[in-house]
């Protein structure tokens, strides 16, 4: 148990569906992250929130829409995805951003398949 | 561009020692992290190095040479449960983590 919980663990959706991924952290952290993990590729940072404010958007397509209502919860809203979006989506949290040694704690991820 | 290189896969024997190397080229350096990720599970933090030298933590040790852009993770007395992927990541000048693709470690009895 890492203190970061993601739901659902698995998701299959069609290209015309709309779905949301949820992440919740119980660590009292102020920063939360979304990453995409594809097989044999490095983790790709998608979004960063610090104190509920988005501080990073790494040129992510608009079919991915993040939402951070408070420092403990993070959502990723999905719509009109493409098959190449199939991947493991990881959520992480950390005490803050902008400092060295800032350890990120990860959830187990949502395995997304787009048909 | 920024780049982290680590071997794709390694195989070792239970009870032995294995060294997983990581080389990096990044814009700035604010530390290097190692994470372990079992299949279907969350990456979990193993170690953080910001100064040159060896950091030992039980059976696991991590080494850093900033001048060479090089780190390694050393695993001793290997156990079957050490079969996992090991991810190397460098924190750059913007305090963002740049990740390697991970090394899948297979432990054989």
Fold and architecture overview:
The complex is a heterodimer of chains A (115) and B (109). Chain A is 0% helix and 56% strand. Chain A has no helices and 11 strands. In chain A, strand 4 and strand 5 form a beta hairpin. Chain A starts with a strand and ends with a strand. Chain B is mainly β and 109 residues long. In chain B, the strands form 2 sheets. In chain B, strands 2, 4, 5, 9, 10 and 11 form a 6-stranded mixed beta sheet that branches. A 5-stranded antiparallel beta sheet of chain B has the order 1-3-8-7-6, with no helix packed on it. Chain B starts with a strand and ends with a strand. The interface between A and B is medium-sized, with 23 and 25 residues.
The helical percent of chain B reads under 10%
Helix-strand pattern of chain B, N to C?
EEEEEEEEEEE
Identify low-pLDDT runs of chain B.
none
Label the overall shape of chain B.
globular
- Measured between the Cα atoms of the first and last residue of chain B, the distance is 40 Å
- What structural class should be given to the helix and strand makeup of chain B? mainly beta
Strand content of chain B: over 45%
Task: Report the β-strand fraction of chain A as a percent range.
Answer: over 45%
| Fraction of residues in helix of chain A | under 10%
Gyration radius over CA of chain A: 13 Å
The dominant shape of chain A is: globular
The number of E-state strands of chain A comes to 11
Report a brief summary of the structure.
The complex is a heterodimer of chains A (115) and B (109). Chain A has strands at 4-7, 10-13, 18-25, 31-37, 44-50, 53-57, 64-70, 73-79, 87-94, 105-106, 110-114.
